[in-house]
Write a structure and sequence with these properties.
By secondary structure, the protein is α+β, with helices and mostly antiparallel strands. The chain has 3 helices and 5 strands, in the order αββαββαβ. The protein has one domain: Ribosomal Protein L9, domain 1, CATH 3.40.5.
């Protein structure tokens, strides 16, 4: 039996472009202090690929929804420290 053929460069590029598209999340800091939020690419290692971003008071940060730790966003939203809004691309 023949195995699966490897992906061509065109197929790899198309898959990457499709993965870059997606829902965008905008996080707005409603407090008077800076809020740290952890983000990482889904395919990266937890300890190596994780980054901390700091959102100053009254500022926003926008990125793809898959890089955020959704549990952390839910907890901060429940404390009314941030406001999260979604937008489709």
């Amino acid at each position: 039996m023949l195995g699966k053929k490897p992906l061509t460069q065109r197929e790899i590029r198309r898959m990457k472009e499709e993965s870059d598209k997606g829902d965008l999340l905008t996080v707005f800091n409603k407090t008077k202090r800076m809020i740290p939020i952890q983000i990482r690419e889904p395919s990266s290692d937890f300890f190596i690929g994780e980054q901390t971003i700091r959102i100053p008071s009254g500022k926003t940060y926008t990125d793809r929804s898959r890089v955020f730790n959704m549990n952390q966003l839910r907890n901060l939203e429940a404390k009314q420290e941030i406001k999260v809004s979604e937008s489709k691309t």
